[in-house]
Amino acid sequence: MLQILHGVNVNWMARRHIAFIVSGVCVAIAIASLILHGGPRYGVDFTGGSLIEILVTPPVHVDAVRSAVDRAGLAGSEIQELSRPGQFLIRAEIKAGRASPSDAIANAVQAGNAGRKVEVLRVESVGPRVGNELRGAAIKAIFFALGLILIYVGIRYDWRYSVGAVAALFHDVFITLGALSITNKEITLTVVAALLTIAGYSINDTIVVFDRIRERSKTLRREPPEKVMNVAINETLSRTVITSFTVFLTVVALFTLGGEVIHDFSFAMLVGVVFGTYSSVYVASGLALEVQLWLERAGGGGAKK
Questions:
Q1: Where are the transmembrane segments (predicted)?
Q2: By three-state DSSP, how is residue 167 classified?
Q3: 3-state DSSP call for residue 88?
Q4: 175 vs 129, which has greater pLDDT?
Q5: CATH for 49-126?
Q6: Architecture of domain 25-42+130-297
Q7: Are 176 and 275 in contact (CB under 8 A)?
Q8: Which of 141, 235, 261, 300 lies at a C-alpha separation of 20 to 30 Å from 51?
């Protein structure tokens, strides 16, 4: 395997309490943002309604579009101006017995802005009942995945490892959710897919570190647990850096060049990759070490041999 870091001897575990404080602050900020925003900002996928993307050429001001939407009988709709001049994203409520309002919006914008061309680029519509069902299914999917990971790590390693691994997963997913809340981005099915992808990426990185910790626990059984974990983390550091940097570059490309459709997905992945790499070292391994030290102090023994 390609090695870019040789002879690294960093005492990672000596800084674990600082890392715990940093993680605690990040989680607290995420909680505060979610409280201030009244919870996650669910998209049309989960709340029901229509998502209409239009392009007006030559471009007009967002106030002109808002006035046209109000005239179409859709007052209160959310209008977002995208990066391309004249491109707008409109979220409108679907009223009972009424079809998607995309044509009404396009006609109203056209009528209020003579000499301009209005093109409907995208329309997504979901009923309120379907939206509620999708939201429940998405929440169940996330917790189901985390529960299965907890069982898998507990069987493959030791219960103290599973505590650290699942805590790291909740840490990564929750901080990513907080970042989405802080930036006022919507939680859509695509973003849920990103959260599940982050969980998979994070546990994969964590398991690589745990495998090496288990190996070194046998060869360095006379050494203190802190040293064993530091040796294991340093030995897998090259792999961690190469993998994380490669994924990071790919996600940056998606974020900058992928367009508006996958913008929120790639943003969530960016946050998740950074915190997933960090949590594999400090949160998962650090908590596993804390549990082992607590067991030794309590006379309960250490890990499985």
A1: 18-36, 137-155, 162-182, 188-210, 231-255, 267-289
A2: helix
A3: strand
A4: 175
A5: 3.30.70.100
A6: Up-down Bundle (1.20)
A7: yes
A8: 141
pLDDT digits 0-9 by tens, 31-78: 999 999 988 888 777 777 788 889 998 888 888 898 888 888 887 777
Residues in the chain: 305
3-state secondary structure 233-266: HHHHHHHHHHHHHHHHHHHHHHHHHCCHHHHHHH
Residue 13, classified by CB atoms within 10 Å of its CB into exposed (0-12), middle (13-18) or buried (19+), is: buried
Domain map of the chain by residue range? Answer: 25-42+130-297, 49-126
Query: Is 109 buried (19+), middle (13-18) or exposed (0-12) by CB count in 10 A?
Result: buried
Q: Distance between CA 97 and CA 301 in Å, rounded?
A: 66
Bridge-based pairing of strands 117-126 and 78-81 is unpaired
Q: What whole-number distance in Å separates Cα of residue 235 and Cα of residue 225? A: 15
How far from 232 is each of 203, 208, 222, 281, CA to CA, in Å? 16, 10, 15, 10
Running DSSP on this structure, what letter comes out for residue 11? -
Place of tokens 């040796």: 231
Res. 304: pLDDT tops 50: no
pLDDT of amino acid 79: 85
Q: What are the structure tokens assigned to 95, written together?
A: 């009223």
Taking the model in full, what pTM does it have? 0.76
Q: Write down the pLDDT at residue 252.
A: 94
The tokens for 256 are: 């900058």
User: 12: which DSSP letter?
Assistant: G
